[in-house]
Every structure is written in C-alpha cells, then in structure tokens.
Amino acid sequence: MHTAAVDAGVGLVATYGIAVLLVVFVLEGALVGKLIPTRTLFVATALAVGSDAFGIASAAVVAVAGATLGQFTLFVLVRRTGLSPESLPGPSAPDDGGRLLRWLDRWGMAAVAMSNTLPVARGSLTVPAAMAGGDVVRFSASSMVGSSVYATGLVAVAIGVDAAVGTV
C-alpha cells in the first residue's frame, strides 16, 4: 500500500515538482491527509529533487510551510465555527479533549511544538488549541518550530538513505 502511494507521489513530483510535497503536507497539517505516508514521501521527494544540500533543504522548507499552513487553516476554521469542548459528540470525546486541553493548560503552546515533533501526534493539539482560545500567531509559531524539528529528522533520514544508496 505504502509503496504504491510513494510511487504515485514520486511520479507526481516528477511531473509537477516539489509543489506536490507542499499539498501533501498541507493536507497532513489540516488532519485530512493523516493516512498519506508523508515521511516516506518526504524522503523520496528530497532524493528525487536532488540529494545535494539545496534539494534536501528545499524539501524541508516546503514540508514545514505546508504543515504550518494546514494547521493554521484548521485552527482558523475551528475558531470560526465556535466549537467548544462541550459541543463535541460522544462519551469519549470530552475525555480525550479534556486530556489535550490539560496539556495545553500545563505546557501552553510548547505542547503544540512538542506534539509536532512526533510522527503520530503531529497536529493533534490544533483543534484543542483553537477551542481553548489560543493566540493564532503563537500557535502558528509553535507549529512551525515543531514541524522544523520534525523536518530536520526527516532530512537526517534522507541523508542516511542517500549515503546508503551511494555506497552500494
């Protein structure tokens, strides 16, 4: 499944350029594209656009910008709809939302940055931060910081893959 998605992604990058990576990371940031193998696609794209410093750095910048833009968009949409933790349906939603809100209360926007460094948790605090009335500028900055750390890790993987392939 992932191989077909990555092959399709690399094919799109070959056709449309690095803008494909931007779209994929915007979708991931907005929590719409959580099933897209973004990590694998990032590494493949970074190597496809060039394994030199400029190619890999441009992939990282595009990924961070896309993820931040996606999270910003979701944050604003949640704020404009006026969602509150009490308005979430289902018995488990308030517990999960409450736990995330407690993280925000305890750590502030640093929790957003920290969650964005973790592959599975990326973006998980976007909705709670918006519902809690967080500042959009501070949220965006925290999102960008966490996504930058995440992208740096992906760059290290891309460099490692490039070095391993180059030695074969």
Notes on the structure:
- The chain is mainly α and 168 residues long.
- It has one domain (2-167).
- The chain has eight helices and no strands.
- The protein has helices at residues 2-16, 19-29, 38-49, 53-81, 93-107, 110-115, 126-131, 136-167.
- α2 runs antiparallel to α3, α2 (19-29) packs parallel to α4 (53-81) and α4 packs antiparallel against α8.
- The radius of gyration is 17 Å and the shape is elongated.
- Mean pLDDT is 80; it is low at 89-94.
**Helical coverage, percent range:** over 70%
Q: What is the succession of H and E elements?
A: HHHHHHHH
User: Whole-number average pLDDT?
Assistant: 80
Give the overall silhouette: elongated
* Portion in beta strands: under 5%
For the structure shown, list the relevant keywords:
elongated; mainly alpha; 8 helices
Summarize the structure.
The chain has eight helices and no strands. With 168 residues, it is mainly α. It has one domain (2-167).
Secondary structure topology:
Layout: H1 2-16, H2 19-29, H3 38-49, H4 53-81, H5 93-107, H6 110-115, H7 126-131, H8 136-167
